[in-house]
Amino acid sequence: MSFLRRRNVSKSRSSDVSQIEEDDEKKKQKEKLSSEVKRIKKWTCIDSCCWFIGFICSTWWLLLFLYNAMPASIPQYVTEAITGPLPDPPGVKLRKEGLTAKHPVIFVPGIVTGGLELWEGHQCSEGLFRKRLWGGTFGEVYKRPLCWVEHMSLDNESGLDPPGIRVRPVSGLVAADYFAAGYFVWAVLMANLARIGYEEKTMYMAAYDWRISFQNTEVRDKTLSRMKSNIELMVATNGGNKAVVIPHSMGVLYFLHFMKWVEAPAPMGGGGGSDWCAQHIKAVMNIGGPFLGVPKAVSGLFSVEARDIAVARGFAPGFLDKDVFGLQTLQHLMRMTRTWDSTMSMIPKGGETIWGGLDWSPEGNYKCGVKKLKSNNTRSGGQTGRGNPSLPQSVNYGRVISFGKDVAALHSSKMERMDFRDALKGYNPANGCDIWTEYQEMGIGGIKAVADYKVYTAGSVLDLLHFVAPKLMARGSAHFSFGIADNLDDPKYEHYKYWSNPLETRLPNAPNMEIYSMYGVGIPTERAYVYKLTPATECSIPFQIDTSAEGESEDSCLKDGVFSVNGDETVPVLSTGFMFAKGWRGMTRFNPSGIRTYIREYDHAPPANLLEGRGTQSGAHVDIMGNFALIEDIIRVAAGARGDDLGGDQVYSDIFKWSEKINLQL
């Protein structure tokens, strides 16, 4: 009996073990099946995403092909039937006047408009040697999106190439003539210059890798040295005629850096000496220059947003944060763009002195929707401090970021704020995500502390970025500076980190050189933002522009959570115009040789119909490159004219009035 009992117990235990093993096996099979289903769903969604993007792109290329395949006379005939005879392009007009090529022309492209190609990559990039990863058709974006992001990103520690990857700028005029098929950047200007005799030997595209810091373009690619050599060669081979340099957008800051680099002694500089610019440059004609930065740079670094993305994010919550295609678009964009050190060159400079504080701003009385009449006011702004504080202000643009619409309008004396700088970070990540962004290291407490501070000015926004993106800002602070120099004779300002900030450096000793600021006006341009915390979801970016924040009237400056002011849709007038209206006007500590400065504003007029394309009177940040009036001004100067021959300043905005309100030691 005892034996039978032991046998039954043994059978029972054996049966239990078998059952457990069977259950474990079923569980493993179930998990494996579930994992496989998720994998299939993910890649099915990615394939669907790629198919959808491919369909849109293919449709666009087809329409573009059909339009371009038509005889040139057909769209021109239809357009002229609607709007009347088209004016001659500037090159044709000026050739009839007898103008011919004289001064060599140097183009300096801005951020994102220059092509980038692959020279070395990982296995996923097989077959892409010397193919464009940026610009052209952007085919690799939808063919292999994650591979594309990997190769467009830079090393998070050095800001240079990641191991095993080399992406380099496309060279030659084709580097930035078109951004994509049918979307011109420099092409229209080049074509018009060619009408008066310009060709490749008298035009040079100073292409550079716009992702990396300005000084690192020299460290890695010797780009600054090549620009110096090419300018010297073109001046020498064109009868000694000095060059006309035409930078656009961030290229304006890049060339500002170049002018200091070329004078500075080696090894930090180019060793050209203090008179190099005077000997080689006739004029610098800056187009859409963000001399004092752009608020868009703050929202871009803070939440990867501008107005358009914010609207899309608000219209379909979660669509971009936790993408339905499984790509987590915003997170990948943030990881990628936060490795591009050049973006930090466009953080607003000058702090509250330039951009305003909690309760004042230079443009405080700007009324959105009110059309300004032309005012050719060329006088220099006087020193009147911060303006009359009794004047009513419709918008306080000094608050670059406000958490809540009510907070944006509340007087600072009625505001309760909690300092975020000592908030606890780390250990308790706000979200779990396999795409690393520095937000994962902030913790719930750190995120809440940022919102509890409520309002950030151009001064405190630097502290904010150091708090939310310490690695990014550690790299950026080694290459860029955002303050105002107390004493420009201080030896510290000989360092390259100050060279692209016009408030911390001097213009060259070149009294016969001219500097122009040419930009569009009359377009609502982002200046300040209303933010909110996002719902705590997996892998989310914790902050976003509150697109529900709207003004009280149709003409309000607040729309979709963004306060707008006069500008070219990207750069506010204050940034493009202040140094020319006041900071560099006449002989100042920033312009000791008294280089002549000119403001040339172009009042925006949209195309009358679709057949006009992007228009010939546009003031928009990139479309202005096809503006006939701007092109005519450039060609006249390249052919030998000076600023006074163009009529001096051409001003539509309140830039002189706003500049008077800024109390800057000159």
UniProtKB/TrEMBL annotation:
Q: Which cellular component, as a GO term, is one annotated location? A: membrane
Q: Where is the composition biased (Basic residues)?
A: 1-10
Q: Does the keyword Membrane apply?
A: yes
**Any GO MF annotation of the entry:** O-acyltransferase activity
- Signal peptide bounds: none
**Which GO terms are recorded in the biological process aspect for this UniProt protein?**
triglyceride biosynthetic process
- Name assigned to this protein: phospholipid:diacylglycerol acyltransferase
Native organism: Rhizophora mucronata (Asiatic mangrove)
